[in-house]
Write the structure tokens for this entry.
Amino acid sequence: MSLSNTITESFVSGTPQLILRLEGFCLFAGALWAFQVQHAGWALFAVLFFAPDLSMLGYLVNPKIGAAAYNAAHTTVVYGPLAVYGYLSGFSVALSLGLIGLAHVGL
């Protein structure tokens, strides 16, 4: 087995992998739909969609901090409550940021 094959192999395969991908798609599609429904600006979406990836800069400090920062920025535990808070409080910026983050995590 070559190194390139080792890198591209997944730790999860078969039905569980399919379920995880469908979950991600549903999260992405649902967040896009909710973003559209709230009539937020798509320019904001485009500008901030890849913002969570800036957490990779933590790897410049060291791998442990980089992994922690990246994982923290790519979880629904951050963006879900933010979106709920924005919705319940009427704070549209928080709702928009939460939905953009959820779409990013789903993708």
